[in-house]
Design goal:
The protein is an all-alpha fold. Helices cover 74% and strands 1% of the residues. It folds into two domains: 53 residues; 246 residues, MetI-like fold (Orthogonal Bundle), CATH 1.10.3720.10.
């Protein structure tokens, strides 16, 4: 063995501990960044989750200078036996069914239309996506002004003349006709307008991922456009479409800011969604913290159950 070879071996032996020390140093730096983040996430998420679960079994008010009193499942039983609460759940269910259903239909249709390239297609797609980029509170206030019976422009667009004089004209034209409760559907219309682009965006990404050779092979076999749509397009985008439906269903059950910005749950309780009632019980003069915590966990259980159904269907669609 030559002298140069021995020197190389010694240099390699000295470099290996240095490399190991450098690796340990890198791992220490990684842990230095990860652990504070994990501790912060646990402190801000896990602890409130467990503490609110404890409060759901107690009689407690956040503004009362009294410790929580253990009542067991009384809060859950009171909620489940309260007919008014079931009314709010039914209102939320109708709201979710209408909004998610229309968003699915309109979002899919818009994605199919925008998929084909045409002059100005990029600009049209951008304009369609604008509503979902706005704040829900801002959208609620904007549409609240649009719906205003005194100076809103909805009456004007419906043919009642000057929007300032529209209330008097409306009262004279339909003086003896009962007016249906349309407040919930007015809010649902805004939600559909705002979040249909979200469904369109997910479906559009799925449409663009479909290989062209599938349609070419179907055309060679003289398959009709309707056959291609149901046998190629729909199955290919179904997983992404179901994910969009899942997200929108969860958000519909949690819908709060848009409703509060438009109606505050009124008139009466026509738009009193379950999330709005949860806020009303937790704050807004009631401060029934224990009961509100129990209601929050019931909503969580419902959302988890619905999500599991969607996830099973998504997994089945992926397998097929």
């Amino acid at each position: 063995m030559t002298v140069s070879t021995q020197a190389q071996i010694q240099a390699a032996g000295q470099a290996q501990p240095q490399r190991k020390r450098r690796e340990l140093s890198d791992r220490a730096i990684v842990n230095l960044f990860i652990w504070p983040t994990l501790i912060l996430l646990i402190a801000w998420n896990f602890f409130p989750l467990i503490y609110s679960l404890f409060l759901s079994f107690t009689d407690y008010s956040a503004i009362a200078n009294k410790p929580p009193q253990w009542v067991g499942f009384k809060n859950y039983a009171d909620i489940l036996t309260d007919t008014q609460m079931w009314k709010y759940f039914a209102t939320t269910g109708r709201y979710a069914l209408v909004t998610v259903g229309m968003q699915t239909i309109l979002g899919f249709s818009l994605a199919v239309l925008v998929r084909e390239k045409f002059r100005g297609s990029g600009l049209v797609t951008t304009l369609i996506l604008i509503p979902m980029m706005l704040s829900p509170v801002v959208v609620g206030l904007f549409w609240k002004l649009m719906y205003n019976p005194s100076f809103g422009y909805f009456n004007f667009l419906l043919g009642f003349g000057n929007p300032v004089n529209a209330p008097d004209m409306l009262a004279g034209r339909f003086a003896n006709v009962p007016v249906p409760n349309l407040a919930l559907w007015a809010v649902a219309l805004v939600d559909i307008w705002m979040w249909t682009p979200f469904v369109m965006l997910l479906v559009l990404s799925g449409l663009k991922a479909i290989p062209d050779y599938l349609y070419e092979a179907a055309a060679i076999d003289r398959a009709s456009s309707w056959f291609q749509f149901w046998r190629i397009t729909v199955p290919s985008v179904m997983p992404l479409l179901m994910i969009a439906i899942l997200f929108r269903t969860i958000e519909a059950f949690k819908s709060f800011d848009l409703v509060m910005g438009m109606t505050g749950g009124g008139p009466g309780d026509q738009t009193e969604l379950i999330a709005v009632n949860l806020y009303r019980q937790a704050f807004l003069g009631q401060w029934r913290t224990g009961r509100a915590s129990a209601l929050a966990y019931l909503i969580l259980i419902i959302i988890i159950a619905i999500s599991n159904l969607y996830i099973r269907y998504i997994n089945k669609a992926n397998e097929d």
